[in-house]
Give the backbone structure.
Amino acid sequence: MNKKKIITGIIGLSLFIQPLTGNSIYADNEISITQTLKAGMRGESVVSLQKRLENLGYFNYKATGYFGNITKESVKKFQRDRNLYADGIAGKNTIAELNKIKETITPVSRGVVENTVSNWTWFGKITNIIPRGTTFKVIDVYTGKEFNAKRTYGTNHADTETLTKEDTRIMKELYGGKWSWDRRPIIVEVDGIKIPASMDGMPHGSDFISDNNMEGHFDIHFLLSKTHGSNRVEPNHQKAVKIANQYLGQYNK
């Protein structure tokens, strides 16, 4: 075998195995940035920041290396979710928080990976997947019962209403036939995507759907969503989201 064939074979083999060894079930994708990044800056450090924000669902554009208004707003969304000062500047604390989150990814083919929903946050991604007016299926984790609902309003979380009287009947069954503020872990399924969530069973406030035997709306919370009254993350809803996420992980095995 001549020297040219040997070199060609080595190059071909390295190209073949590289995607296989480069992917991990748990991808940290940490960014090594020592300088503060802010609007108007350019460079590889900004690219790293944009890619990290994209991995976490906060930046839905191609990484350009320019820190413009889109990047600034993405940073501010992340900062609000993590209870940091939301100034849109990626300083030491923000970068440390970005590196703290371990994003789980699932291999789908050789050299290709796909993000799971386990780390999608309400403000980072989910609110755009379920905009106001979106209908979806609610699956109760404990019983497996399902009903249909619609996000009719809400900013810090999804203000939701059942679509029909039958949907209301099923929802009410989950609470023993009565309304309740108790949190329940649920799966919200929209366009084939299953998202871990938490709901309460107490209609209140605004009402947009008539003739469904429900006056008002009920709340559905997702990872790092907040209440409208306190503008804070509600611990009991987050516990239920965690249970739903664990259930979804077992369901997908």
Observations:
- The first strand starts at residue 26 and ends at 27.
- The radius of gyration is 22 Å.
- Strands lie at 26-27, 103-109, 112-115, 135-140, 146-153, 158-162, 180-190, 193-201, 218-221.
- The chain has a mean pLDDT of 82.
